[in-house]
Amino acid sequence: MKVNSLALALSFTCLLGSVSALAAAQPHRGGSLTWGVETEPVPFNPQLNGQSKAEVVLRNVWESLLARRPDGSYVPWLAQGYQASPDGKSFTFTLRPDVTFSNGEKLTAGAVAENFRHLQDAQYCAGSSLCAMGVRIARIDTPDDHSVTITLKQGFAPFLAFAAKLPILAPASWHSSQLRSGGTEIAGTGPFILESYEKGQQATFVRNPNYHWAPATAQHQGPAYLDSVTYRFLPESSVRTGALLSGQVDVIEGISGNDAGEFKDNADFTYQHALNTGTPYSLFLNVDYGPTRELKVRQALLQGLDIDPILKSVYRGERTRAWGITSPVDPLYNKDLEGKYGNQPALANSLLDEAGWTTRDSQGFRSKNGQRLSIEVIQAQATVRDQRDVLLQALQAQARQRLGVELKLRYVDAGTYVEVRNSGKFGSIANSNTDTDGIDIENHYRPVNAGGAINYSRVNSPEINGWLDRAAATLDAAQQRQNYSDLQQYALIKQALAVPLYEPEDQIAAASYVHGVGFRSFKQMPENSYDIWLSEH
Questions:
Q1: CA angle 215, 220, 223 (to 5 degrees)
Q2: Distance from CA of residue 155 to its chain's centroid?
C-alpha cells in the first residue's frame, strides 16, 4: 500500500496546529503581566483609600466578606454565609475556616471584628467615609471563632452592602507603622502579595501560592495563573495608549474617546467597556454658600446647560449622558428622570432674571448688587481623569455663553480638598462615586452631622431625610426603591441639588495574547489579575 508522504505531512502539520491551538486556548500558569493604570493608590491602605479607580490594583491583595453577582445578589467569599435580622439592625457573618492572610495569620472572628472596631476609631478613619458607618455600630460580638455579629444602634439596611465589601486587613496590620499609608506589612488574603511599590512609578505583586478561596463569581479556583503582575502608573490616556500599541505594557484601562478606535476591530487587541454603578459624575451645587444658595440659580444651571453636544465633542460619542443621581446599572435607578430637564436656555435665563441677576458686566457675566454671578467649582486632583478637565472647561464656556454665569474651576490637592469640603465654602464640587444599595444616596444627601459622609450640596431637608429614614428602615426592596425614587425626583427636579453630567465607565484594552481580563460583576469595574493568563506570543 502506497502512502502519500505529502498528504501525511500535511495531515500531521494540521494535527500539530490543532493541538497547538487547543493548548493556546487552555489557561495555564506562568508569566508576568504589565498593566498600565490611570490611578495610583493613595494611600495603599484599601480601607482608607477612597479612589474607586484604584481598586483594580488593591483588590489583588485585600478581599471582602461577600462578592456580588451581576444582579447584585451576594455570594460567599471570606464569609461562607450571612444572616440579617428582619429589622435591619444586626448582621451575622459566618467565616470560612480555611482562610489565611499572606503573613500566615488565620482569618478568625476576632480578626474580622477588629476591622469593624476600627471603623469606630475617629482617629483611624478621619478623612474617609468609614466613620459615617462606624458611628452606627452599637456592638460587635464574636459568638465563636468563625462568627461575627454586628449590631447597629438602629436599623440601617444599606449597612449590609458596606459590610460585605469592606477590605479585611490582617491582625498584625493594626500594629504596623505602615497602617495609614499601606505597604508590604499590611497583609491581606488575596491571590497576590504586594512585593514592591515605587511611588509615582509602579507596584509589583507576586502570586500567593496558598490561595484557594475565590468566590463563585471568579472564572477559576486555586492560585492565580500569573507569576507576577506589575501595575505602572500612567495618568495620561495618550501615554497609556502609546504604551500598549508599542508593546511596553500588555493591558491598559481608562481609554479616551479619541483613542478607543485604535483598539476596536483590531485583531491585535481586545477592547471592552462597561458602565459603573453609583453616582454619576456631576456638579453638586452648594445650598449653603454663594449664589447657589438661590434655588432659581441652581435650577437655571440644571435647565440651561446642554450636556449632550459637550459629551459628543469631548468623548467622540464614547460616553453615556447621565440623568439621575444613580447609575442606570444600579437597581435603584429612576428612569423617569431621563429627558426631564436641560437644554432650555430661555427658561434658564428667565429664572436668573427672576432671581435678580439682570445686570451684565463688561465681560458679559450677570451680576447683582455689584457682585458677579460666579460659582467656584472644586475638583480634586486625585479624581481628574477621563478628560474631566476638558469637560469642565467646555461647561465653563457654555455657562458663560448661554447664561452669563461664571464657573471658576479650581483644582486642589488631597489636603486642600478635605479642608474646602469641611469648610463648606465652595459653590460646587465635581465628582462621582461607585457605592451602591442606597449608600451613595445616603452619603450625598444625608446631613453631614447625621452621617452624610459626602453631602457636597450641604443639604439638610426634612423631606429628603424622611425618604432616607424610611428606605433605610426596611429590607423590602420595593419599598426602598419607591422611597429612593421619590427622593431623586425631589432632590434633582425640584431642588436642583446637582447637575448630572455623564455615567462613569471603565474601558480595558489588551494585547490579543492576554486572556481572562474583564470587569468585576455588578460594579463593572476592572477586576484584579486573578483570572488572567497569557498565551504564547
A1: 90
A2: 26
Whole-angstrom distance, CA of residue 504 vs CA of residue 501: 9
Is 379 within 8 Å of 430 (Cβ atoms)?
Answer: yes
User: Where do the H-state alpha helices sit in 430-491?
Assistant: 439-445, 462-472, 477-488
Mean pLDDT confidence for 302-319: 94
Instruction: Check residue 537 and give its pLDDT.
Output: 56
462: its cell numbers: 426634612
Alpha carbon 365 to its chain's center: 36
Question: What's the confidence (pLDDT) of residue 430?
Answer: 95
What's the whole-model pTM score? 0.84
Q: Report the C-alpha gap between 496 and 292 in whole angstroms.
A: 10
Query: Do 204 and 196 form a contact (C-beta atoms < 8 A)?
Result: yes
Long-range contacts, stretch 489-493, CB < 8 angstroms, 24+ apart:
489/334, 489/336, 489/337, 490/461, 490/463, 490/464, 491/325, 491/445, 491/459, 491/461, 491/464, 492/302, 492/324, 492/325, 492/337, 492/341, 493/337, 493/340, 493/341
User: Taking the chain, what is the end-to-end CA distance rounded to the nearest angstrom?
Assistant: 42
